[in-house]
Amino acid sequence: MAVTEQQIPSVRITSPQGKWILLTTVLGSSMAMLDSTVVNVALPRIGRDLDASLAALQWTVNAYMVTLAGLILLGGSLGDRFGRRKVFVLGVVWFATASLLCGLAPTPGVLIAARALQGIGGALLTPGSLALIQASFHPDDRARAVGLWSGFGGIGAAVGPFLGGWLVDGPGWRWVFLLNVPLALVCAPIAVRHVPESGDGRAHGRFDVLGAALGALALALVTYALIEARGGSLAVVVTAVAGVAAGIAFVYVEKRRPDPMMPLGIFASRQFTAVNLVTLCVYAAFGGFFFLTALQLQVVAGYSALQAGTALLPTTALMLLFSARSGALAERIGPRIPLTVGPLLCAAGLLLMLRVGKDASYAADVLPALLVMGAGMVTLVAPLTATVLASVDTSQAGLASGINNAAARAAGLIAVAALPLLAGMGPEAYRSADAFAAAFRRAMPICAGVLVVGAVLAFATVRRPAPDCCRPECRMHGSVTAPPLEPSRGTTKSDAGPAS
């Protein structure tokens, strides 16, 4: 018999079943988190082996992000309606199947299509893993379970670039994707055997499939126009106009639907709107930085894939070690200072990356920039999440977190599409150390400028939340691609995340 939201979950974290549930949710979410961090390191080798242009490499990253960002809000609603375990397992199997297609892809086009399919699987399993914890564990153990889930997920994010580099230099870049298959073979049977089914018996009405489709279509069309804009053809102009039209249609549909995927009323909170604007700035800069830096270290500095992946570890390690303390500090002094200082520190780190060129010294050139960048991320990410939750009613915590997560991912994919264009990178720039280095030197100040805009927005708009506001349960952060998802709160239908 399926467990519904009206029943109190009874699984204790110290029980054998509790440990199995935690294991399978960590494995599931780690698949998606690993994939979002390891692929950048593999891009130069993918380009050489498949004879891919820079645009194809951009799409290798963005095809995944388009479907994930466009559908992640809908993913939680599907679990509420059809069963969270069922949708989670479907997401794991889907993700692994798409990963297998990525690993076997003979051409860039096949790889890009498989990556888009991967994003659909990620949209099912990412919110599903957290929903399973919320629906399974006893309320007294839920916060600890969420903390362990986010902590182990952060470790997975930290290991990702190192593991990706080792695979690229060893068995080959295809194993970056093929690794997900054995993980799924472990994860899915454990979920079926040990995780209780749950759902929201009150979930009813139609799914906002049209809204999800329009959102993903708008992102895809705008991304295509930005990536292909170098040609300046009529097709690019038409695609750009169509992308804007799809975005307007998305807003219109969400405003008119009785059960929208993204209720526009949540943006009535000025604080929520302001913090999401800061999120767009911050994660656009992060997305562009990590995409280009993985290439810069290999193409220009001459690092191997393993060296490049290992080089990026300090930022994630700092977040894992200090994000909880940063969140506690922000609770005492308020979020305005951390959300102003954090982006400025990140901007300084990006400008320090201008020292990274041919034969760059890791200790003297790369590490100082990444330490400053990591310090900025530590300073801002936890307060950003807390401020998002504090700006809405407790019953909308899951929805607010999902919107903020999707906004960050959308910002990252737009940055990956637009930054090479703005920096003047040609379609073969990554094959020439001199050409790529010149474009990288133009790109980092652009990213730093976007971070400064985010800092100014935060200083001008962010205010101290009310003392009784909603607090985050995910205290430890490790992901560099998006803010952590937060579980929904309360017992009303709106708590379950996006409306279904």
Automatic annotation (TrEMBL):
Keyword match DNA repair: no
Stored Pfam families: MFS_1 (PF07690)
CDD domains in the record: MFS_MMR_MDR_like
Alphabetically ordered keywords of this record: Antibiotic resistance, Cell membrane, Membrane, Transmembrane, Transmembrane helix, Transport
Annotated membrane topology: Multi-pass membrane protein
Annotated InterPro entries: EmrB-like, MFS, MFS_dom, MFS_trans_sf
Sequence intervals crossing the membrane: 20-43, 55-75, 87-106, 112-133, 145-167, 173-195, 207-227, 233-253, 274-295, 301-324, 336-354, 366-390, 402-423, 443-462
NCBIfam families from the UniProt entry: efflux_EmrB
Official protein name in the record: MFS transporter
Source species of the chain: Streptomyces yaanensis
Lineage of producing organism: Bacteria, Bacillati, Actinomycetota, Actinomycetes, Kitasatosporales
